[in-house]
Design brief:
Blueprint lengths: L5 E5 L4 H13 L5 E5 L2 H11 L2 E5 L15 E6 L7 H9 L3 E3 L7 H10 L5 E4 L7 H10 L4 E12 L6 H13 L3 E5 L2 E5 L1 H4 E5 L5 E6 L3 H10 L3 E9 L2 H5 L5 E10 L5 E10 L4 H15 L10 E3 L1 H4 L2 H10 L3 E4 L1
Parallel strand pairs: 1-2, 1-4, 2-3, 4-5, 5-6, 6-15, 7-12
Antiparallel strand pairs: 7-13, 8-9, 10-11, 11-12, 13-14, 14-16
Helix pairs in contact: 1-10, 5-8, 5-12
């Protein structure tokens, strides 16, 4: 396969980690995987289910992560918050790619600084976007229908029973404690949106509305700079999903609205939902898996050292195709 060592999944026994590992195993049966967690029994169960995987106990408070010396790794993937950045430092010390999922816009400054200080040490992929970047990639794919994009609005409804495991819930609580303000680009200016102004009503596919708010998330900056759109915002709500209301279980719905100028010069609008009946987990694991395979050169060339976001590495149309293959449905609003 061209790469050496194993893909080290920090938090690999959690929801995002185990789902990503399972997807990688289906795509690359011979790819070595290491499931790293604080609980050896849980990590072992996940590794045994995957087959051909290794389970290790990890200590994120240690610079060496508590791992045996001399064991080669191909990449380090933090599927939980790497609060001390020891996972990133470990990857840099070993010259292998690093992927982060849980930093969020409010926590990326140390990560960006660490990558900037050692720019030739390793490729660093910041994937703290919604679902590890697949929604941004989908919006970029649909934006290709426009000559000019003026406005991008995204509204994601997450079912209250699909907020993730302990690590995911801890992320949501941490972000909520830091700020209740949103972040958006308006008339070309990036800025914070006060808590009261940030509150919005998000329409579900079945016509029900859920109260949410504009949030500070990396999708805003990625979409703004990739398209040049002067107006970009991302709103998020937790509540009862349409799938739950139908009795089918928690689903996830993300509405993407684009406005601008079409190929003929006439005004063009597009409003479409990204829906998965199994909730957000298949979307997040797909985003992570695509990032990992790109970094390792399993699709395309291996990535040189540097700091990256998903849209800098992944092709939007390919992401939409992969989402469809994973059971995602796209519905015109």
């Amino acid at each position: 396969m061209g790469q050496r060592g194993s893909v080290l999944l920090l938090g690999g026994a959690g929801q995002a980690g185990s789902d990503t590992a399972a997807l990688l195993r289906r795509r690359y049966p011979e790819l070595p995987l290491t499931i790293a967690g604080r609980n050896q029994d849980r990590a072992r169960r996940v590794a045994d289910e995957l087959g051909g995987a290794t389970a290790v106990t990890v200590d994120l408070a240690r610079g060496d992560l508590g791992l045996p010396a001399g064991r080669p790794y191909a990449a380090v993937v933090a599927t939980l918050w790497d609060s001390r950045l020891n996972g990133l430092r470990f990857a840099q010390d070993h010259g292998v790619p690093y992927v982060s999922l849980s930093s969020g816009m409010i926590d990326i400054a140390p990560e960006v600084t660490a990558a900037a200080q050692r720019p030739v040490a390793a490729p660093v992929l910041m994937a703290s976007h919604w679902a590890a970047g697949v929604i941004t990639l989908t919006a970029l794919a649909w934006a290709e229908e426009f000559n000019r994009v003026d406005t991008i609005r995204i509204g994601a409804i997450l079912d209250e029973h699909d907020a993730g495991g302990p690590a995911g819930l801890a992320d949501l609580e941490r972000w909520a404690e830091v700020t209740s303000a949103g972040y958006a680009r308006r008339d070309g200016v990036f800025g914070w949106v006060g808590a009261a102004e940030a509150r919005v009503e998000l329409p579900s596919l079945d016509g029900t509305t859920v109260t949410g708010q504009t949030v500070p998330i990396l999708d805003v900056t990625s979409l703004s700079l990739a398209t040049g759109a002067p107006n970009v915002e991302f709103a998020f709500a937790i509540g009862e999903s349409a799938g739950t209301r139908r009795g089918d279980g928690p689903s996830v719905e993300v509405r993407i609205d684009l406005e601008g100028e079409g190929p003929t010069g006439a005004p063009l609008r597009l409003s479409r939902y990204v829906v998965h009946p199994d909730g957000q987990r298949p979307l997040t694991s797909l985003g992570l898996a695509m990032g990992i395979e790109r970094l390792l050169g399993l699709r395309g060339e291996a990535v040189a050292p540097g700091l990256y976001t998903p849209e800098a590495l992944l092709e939007p149309r390919h992401a939409v195709e992969q989402l469809a293959d994973a059971g995602t449905v796209f519905v015109d609003a």
